[in-house]
Design brief:
- This protein starts with a strand and ends in a 12-residue tail after the last strand.
- The radius of gyration is 61 Å and the shape is rod-shaped.
- By secondary structure, the protein is mainly β.
- The strands form 6 sheets. Strands 4, 6, 9, 10, 11, 12 and 20 form a 7-stranded antiparallel beta sheet that branches. Strands 14, 15, 16, 17 and 18 form a 5-stranded antiparallel beta sheet that branches. Strands 21-3-22 form a 3-stranded antiparallel beta sheet.
- Strand 17 and strand 18 form a beta hairpin.
- 3% of the residues lie in helices and 60% in strands.
- The chain has 1 helix and 22 strands.
C-alpha cells in the first residue's frame, strides 16, 4: 500500500490508495495523540457541622425554626449543651425544640423561709393554764412558733373538791372579860370562824367556859399534772435564687452533598479501535477515595496519521 501525505497549514489530509488493515494498525500504535477531557462533575457526601444559639430567656422550653444549608443531604446527629433537644424537618425548614436545661443565669437573695420542717414540743403544768402558742428554735438554725394542737389533758394525780362541817369549840378563862367574841379555827385541813354559842358558864373551879360554834371548810385538793402538746412548721433562712434565665447551644452534624469539578487531561497513544466509550482515564480520585469515574464526555484530536472517522468524537 502506498500513501501520499499533503500538509496545508494545520489541517490534515489523508489519502488512502489501498487500504491495508495491518499497516493502519501499526501506524496508529506509533502515533502520539493528545486526548483532552472536558471537566467532569463528581458527587460525594461529606460531614459538616454548624451551631444554633438560643439567647437567654425566662422560658426553659424554647423553639427555633432555621433554614437548612443549601448542601444539606441528611442529619447525622443533633446535640445540645444542656437539657434535651428534639427536631423535625419539613422541606428546607428545620424546627428545633430545647427543654430542661440548666439555668445560664439567676439572681440571688436572702429567703428567711428557704428551708422548713415540722416540729413539736410538750409543756407540763400543775394547773390547766397554757399559752396558745410557744416560740421554737434549735441548734440547726430553725425557728418559728408552735401552736397548741388540742386542749391540755391530765397525765397524773387527781382533784378532790373542798367540803364543810360544823365545829364546836370551847374557850375557858378565869375572867369572863377575856372571852373573845369569835374564834379562828384551822385544823385538819379545815378552817373557818366560830362565834359564841349562848352565854358562858362557870365550872366548879370558878372558871368561865364559853362555847363557840360555826361552819368550817376544807380547801380543794388538786394533785393533777397537766400536759399541753404543740406543733407547727419552723423555718431556716438562706440564699435563694429567682429570675432564672436559660440559653442553649445546639450542634447539628449533617451529611452534605459536594459538587466539585475535576479537570483531567490525558496524553497517550490514540485508541486503536473505532469505539472509545470505554476509554476512561485514571487521573481523577473521588472524595470517597475511589478511582471509579462516572460516564464522561470527551473529545480527542489526532496529530499525525490515524483513523479520521474518530476525530471530534
Amino acid at each position: 500500500m502506498k500513501i501520499k501525505k499533503e500538509r496545508s497549514h494545520t489541517k490534515i489530509k489523508v489519502h488512502f490508495i489501498k487500504p491495508n488493515k495491518i499497516l493502519l494498525y501499526s501506524l496508529s500504535a506509533m502515533l502520539t495523540t493528545s486526548i483532552l477531557f472536558y471537566p467532569i462533575d463528581t458527587f460525594a457526601l461529606t460531614t459538616e457541622q454548624f451551631t444554633v444559639t438560643y439567647s437567654e430567656s425566662s422560658s426553659q422550653e424554647q423553639s427555633k425554626v432555621i433554614t437548612l444549608p443549601s448542601n444539606y443531604d441528611s442529619i447525622s446527629s443533633v446535640s445540645v449543651d444542656t437539657g434535651d433537644v428534639d427536631f423535625s424537618i419539613s422541606g428546607t425548614q428545620m424546627t428545633i425544640n430545647v427543654s430542661n436545661g440548666k439555668a445560664s443565669s439567676k439572681d440571688s437573695y436572702y429567703n428567711p423561709t428557704l428551708s422548713s420542717r415540722e416540729e413539736s414540743s410538750v409543756d407540763y403544768s400543775d394547773t390547766n393554764s397554757f399559752p396558745a402558742s410557744v416560740p421554737y428554735s434549735d441548734e440547726d438554725g430553725y425557728s418559728g412558733s408552735l401552736s397548741a394542737t388540742s386542749p391540755a389533758y391530765v397525765v397524773s394525780g387527781a382533784y378532790t373538791p373542798g367540803s364543810s362541817k360544823t365545829i364546836t369549840e370551847t374557850q375557858t378563862v378565869a375572867n369572863p372579860a377575856y372571852l373573845p367574841e369569835t374564834l379562828e379555827y384551822s385544823k385538819n385541813g379545815y378552817s373557818g370562824i366560830l362565834t359564841k354559842s349562848g352565854n358562858y358558864i362557870k365550872n366548879i373551879n370558878d372558871e368561865y367556859i364559853q362555847y363557840y360554834t360555826g361552819i368550817v371548810y376544807s380547801k380543794d385538793t388538786d394533785t393533777r399534772k397537766w400536759r399541753q402538746d404543740y406543733s407547727g412548721e419552723v423555718y431556716k433562712g438562706g440564699t435563694d435564687y429567682k429570675n432564672y434565665k436559660y440559653s442553649y447551644k445546639v450542634t447539628i452534624t449533617y451529611k452534605a452533598g459536594s459538587l466539585s469539578t475535576a479537570n483531567c487531561s490525558y496524553k497517550g497513544v490514540s485508541p486503536s479501535s473505532n469505539s472509545t466509550t470505554n476509554f476512561h482515564p485514571k487521573c481523577v480520585t473521588l472524595d470517597s477515595g475511589t478511582k471509579d469515574l462516572y460516564t464522561m464526555k470527551y473529545n480527542f484530536s489526532v496529530t499525525g496519521i490515524s483513523d479520521a472517522s474518530q476525530k471530534g468524537k
